[in-house]
Protein backbone atom coordinates (compact mmCIF):
# COMPACT_ATOMS: atom_id res chain seq x y z
CA UNK A 1 0.00 0.00 0.00
CA UNK A 2 1.03 3.58 -0.69
CA UNK A 3 2.01 5.61 2.38
CA UNK A 4 2.47 9.35 1.75
CA UNK A 5 5.39 11.22 3.25
CA UNK A 6 4.59 13.12 6.42
CA UNK A 7 4.98 16.85 5.89
CA UNK A 8 5.36 19.04 8.95
CA UNK A 9 4.94 22.76 8.58
CA UNK A 10 6.28 25.27 11.08
CA UNK A 11 4.75 28.27 9.35
CA UNK A 12 1.51 28.27 11.32
CA UNK A 13 0.59 29.82 14.63
CA UNK A 14 -0.26 27.53 17.50
CA UNK A 15 -3.47 28.24 19.40
CA UNK A 16 -3.19 28.98 23.12
CA UNK A 17 -2.85 25.85 25.20
CA UNK A 18 -5.81 24.99 27.40
CA UNK A 19 -4.08 23.90 30.57
CA UNK A 20 -7.21 22.38 32.04
CA UNK A 21 -8.15 24.52 35.01
CA UNK A 22 -11.44 24.02 36.79
CA UNK A 23 -12.69 26.68 39.13
CA UNK A 24 -16.22 27.89 39.78
CA UNK A 25 -15.27 31.33 41.04
CA UNK A 26 -16.03 34.07 38.53
CA UNK A 27 -14.50 37.48 38.13
CA UNK A 28 -17.48 39.68 37.34
CA UNK A 29 -15.24 42.29 35.72
CA UNK A 30 -14.52 39.95 32.81
CA UNK A 31 -16.73 39.08 29.88
CA UNK A 32 -18.67 35.83 29.86
CA UNK A 33 -16.51 34.45 27.06
CA UNK A 34 -13.18 34.97 28.84
CA UNK A 35 -11.14 31.91 29.84
CA UNK A 36 -8.70 31.56 32.69
CA UNK A 37 -5.55 29.82 31.52
CA UNK A 38 -3.59 30.24 34.73
CA UNK A 39 -4.56 29.49 38.30
CA UNK A 40 -3.00 28.88 41.65
CA UNK A 41 -4.13 27.11 44.76
CA UNK A 42 -4.87 29.45 47.67
CA UNK A 43 -2.77 27.18 49.89
CA UNK A 44 -1.38 23.67 49.75
CA UNK A 45 -2.18 21.17 47.03
CA UNK A 46 -1.55 17.56 46.03
CA UNK A 47 -0.11 16.42 42.68
CA UNK A 48 -1.79 13.18 41.71
CA UNK A 49 -0.82 10.63 39.10
CA UNK A 50 -3.51 8.04 38.46
CA UNK A 51 -4.93 8.43 41.97
CA UNK A 52 -1.57 8.27 43.77
CA UNK A 53 0.67 11.13 44.88
CA UNK A 54 3.06 11.81 42.01
CA UNK A 55 6.39 10.19 42.85
CA UNK A 56 5.00 8.60 46.01
CA UNK A 57 2.92 5.73 47.26
CA UNK A 58 0.10 7.41 49.24
CA UNK A 59 -3.27 7.77 47.59
CA UNK A 60 -4.38 11.33 46.88
CA UNK A 61 -7.16 11.19 49.45
CA UNK A 62 -4.68 10.22 52.17
CA UNK A 63 -2.33 13.05 51.13
CA UNK A 64 -5.23 15.51 51.21
CA UNK A 65 -5.90 14.71 54.86
CA UNK A 66 -9.60 15.58 54.60
CA UNK A 67 -8.97 18.90 52.81
CA UNK A 68 -9.67 17.49 49.31
CA UNK A 69 -10.53 14.19 47.64
CA UNK A 70 -13.20 13.42 50.22
CA UNK A 71 -15.84 10.78 49.57
CA UNK A 72 -15.83 7.31 48.10
CA UNK A 73 -13.51 7.12 45.07
CA UNK A 74 -13.33 10.92 44.93
CA UNK A 75 -9.83 10.91 43.41
CA UNK A 76 -9.55 7.31 42.23
CA UNK A 77 -7.36 7.29 39.09
CA UNK A 78 -7.26 11.12 39.09
CA UNK A 79 -4.28 12.82 37.42
CA UNK A 80 -3.52 16.50 38.05
CA UNK A 81 -3.12 19.02 40.84
CA UNK A 82 -5.93 19.32 43.38
CA UNK A 83 -6.01 22.21 45.84
CA UNK A 84 -6.54 21.50 49.52
CA UNK A 85 -9.55 23.80 49.53
CA UNK A 86 -12.37 21.27 49.57
CA UNK A 87 -11.96 20.37 45.89
CA UNK A 88 -13.00 16.92 44.65
CA UNK A 89 -15.65 16.49 47.33
CA UNK A 90 -18.10 13.62 47.09
CA UNK A 91 -18.53 10.18 45.58
CA UNK A 92 -16.63 9.88 42.28
CA UNK A 93 -16.09 13.67 42.19
CA UNK A 94 -12.78 13.58 40.27
CA UNK A 95 -12.62 9.87 39.51
CA UNK A 96 -10.78 9.04 36.26
CA UNK A 97 -10.26 12.76 35.46
CA UNK A 98 -7.11 14.18 33.92
CA UNK A 99 -7.16 17.91 34.69
CA UNK A 100 -4.21 20.27 35.06
CA UNK A 101 -5.43 21.95 38.26
CA UNK A 102 -8.65 21.96 40.26
CA UNK A 103 -9.29 25.07 42.36
CA UNK A 104 -12.30 25.06 44.73
CA UNK A 105 -14.40 22.85 42.47
CA UNK A 106 -15.69 19.38 41.54
CA UNK A 107 -18.34 17.78 43.66
CA UNK A 108 -19.70 14.29 43.25
CA UNK A 109 -22.98 12.61 44.06
Please provide a written account of the structure.
This protein has 109 residues and is mainly beta. The protein is 5% helix and 19% strand. The chain contains one helix and five strands. It has one helix spanning 60-64; strands spanning 21-23, 45-49, 52-53, 79-83, 98-103. The protein has a five-stranded mixed sheet with strand order 1-5-4-2-3. A hairpin with a 2-residue loop joins β2 (45-49) and β3 (52-53). Residues 1-19 and 26-36 have low confidence and may be disordered.
Termini distance? 51 Å
Strand order of the largest sheet: 1-5-4-2-3
* Mean pLDDT across every amino acid position: 77
Derived from helix and strand composition plus strand pairing, the structural class reads mainly beta
What percent strand? 15-25%
Indicate the percent of residues in helices.
under 10%
Shape: globular
Oligomer state of the chains in this structure: single chain
Order of helices and strands: EEEHEE
Number of helices: 1
Given as residue ranges, the uncertain stretches (5+ residues, pLDDT < 50) are 1-19, 26-36
Q: How would you sum up the major sheet?
A: 5 strands, mixed
Q: How large, in whole angstroms, is the Cα Rg?
A: 18 Å
DSSP E strands, number: 5
Helices, strands, pairings?
Layout: E1 21-23, E2 45-49, E3 52-53, H1 60-64, E4 79-83, E5 98-103
Amino acid sequence: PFVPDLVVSTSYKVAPLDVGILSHKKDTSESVSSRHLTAECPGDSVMCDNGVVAGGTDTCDVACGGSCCTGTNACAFFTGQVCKDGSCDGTNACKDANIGIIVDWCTGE
